[in-house]
Amino acid sequence: MSERIYTTEQLSERLSRTPEGYLLCADVPINRTGEMIYNEREAKLMPWLRQFEPDEQGRFRVIREPEEVFRPETLKSFEGKPFIILHPDDGSLLRPDNWAELAQGNMQNIRRGEGDLADCTLADVLATTENAIELILAGMREVSCGYDADYIQLEPGILRQINIVGNHLALVDKGRAGARCAIQDSEGGSVMSFRTRLKSLLARKGLAASALATVDALSAEEEDELQKEKKGTKDEEPEYVTRKDLEETLDCWWKKTKDAEAKATKDAADEEEKKKKDEEEKKKGEEGAEAEKHSVDWSPGCATKDAALQDLAARSEILIPGFTVPQVADRPGLTAAKRAVLKAAYATEDGKKAIERFTGANISLDAAPGATLDAAFIGASELIGQANNGRFARRRIAQENFKPAGDIAAINKANRDFWDKRTAKV
Fold first, then answer.
1. 127: part of which helix (H) or strand (E)?
2. Which of 30, 209, 242, 296 is the most exposed place for a label (fewest CB within 10 A)?
3. Most confidently modeled of 19-23, 88-92, 275-279?
4. Residue 241 to residue 412: CA distance in whole angstroms
5. Judgement on whether residues 35 and 163 belong to the same structural domain of the protein
6. Looking at the predicted structure, is the pLDDT value of residue 142 above 60?
């Protein structure tokens, strides 16, 4: 990995990110020595080739010798030059007037490769735009140099390239130099697996970590199934997947995943709603059973209704004599009437004592449930009724002990009998 640029996140052996999020691609082979073949169709599209004589098939073979490719001036000419996506359609080179429109980064640390890459020019490529970074991470990796050069014709169809001056480096689907000149992940020349590219694209789309974990959880069979859905695969590189292919695969897979997640979420919500309804029904059933103990039949002309109203009137008179009981037309009205009577009785000293025997102290009669009201209404009226009966019995005994004496003659006779008895004793 290049030590010339500061990075903070290592994606692979040769890919890393800077603090700003730029993507550094280290040790990228950008061109090579050897021969480049241009067929007749390609040659017709390249003005610089038209001045030379092709071979019998209309083709050109361009020789690139190491002395020219690695010439110090050639290497220096690529230093700091722009990194772009695809060559300009008109075949032009980058200038100050079109640089801002096309540049997607730059390349630096230009040098000749070593070992197996001794025939290649290497560069550290810094991709600075979101589009370029996404394309690279999605699997678009081959590169192609844009440059100016002179040519010497050795014989029909054979040219020697000299005086190479670098202009730019383009990210392409298929480069003329072949798969060797490409952004790679490791020294061995491997690129990221389909699974890794899929995760990278998911991350670039800003999807949650749970989505990335889902990709990690893919079985080998599931990964193979996803790869079968891609199109435009390069014959010579079955692992290669373009950004468009990867996005099509991702969209199909992600829809299936989200549909499954949505169904699971809905099923969980439905189960929770069912549980809640079951609990509510159970609670209503318990309250209904309790209310049934004190139920009143309110059908027209029903004797039960008449008995309930009579009981309400009688007990109300005991609890708070002279209190005007509200009109009752249905069972809720009966409960409301009992509440009103109890509130009036609770305002009296005797009533409060009797009611709190059944409700506890400091009861809020406005909030008390129907069962509590029934218990207090019946119980308190019974207590007060019994107390009233005791007081009546004591008054009756006292009155019987002091009966009217009768007329004057009877009074005189009674007095004589009293004193006669006392004189006899003396």
1. strand 120-127
2. 209
3. 19-23
4. 139
5. yes
6. yes
Residue 68 CA, chain-centre distance (Å), reads: 58
CB neighbours of residue 374 within 10 Å: 19
**Domain limit, last residue, from 235, 262, 293:** 293
Task: Give the alpha-carbon dihedral of 175, 181, 184, 186, to 10 degrees.
Answer: 160
Looking at the domain assignment, is residue 86 inside a domain?
yes
Phi-psi region of 85 (alpha: psi -120 to 50; beta: other; left: phi over 0): beta
Res 174 pLDDT > 90:
no
Q: Is the pLDDT of residue 166 over 90?
A: yes
Question: Cβ atoms within 10 A of the Cβ of 88, count?
Answer: 15
Inter-residue contact 138 to 241 (CB < 8 Å): yes
Q: Are 246 and 269 in contact (CB under 8 A)?
A: no
Distance between CA atoms of residues 338 and 316, nearest Å: 8
Integer angstrom CA distances of residue 192 from 186, 230, 251, 390, 400 = 9, 16, 20, 100, 116
Q: Which residues constitute the domain of residue 239?
A: 216-293
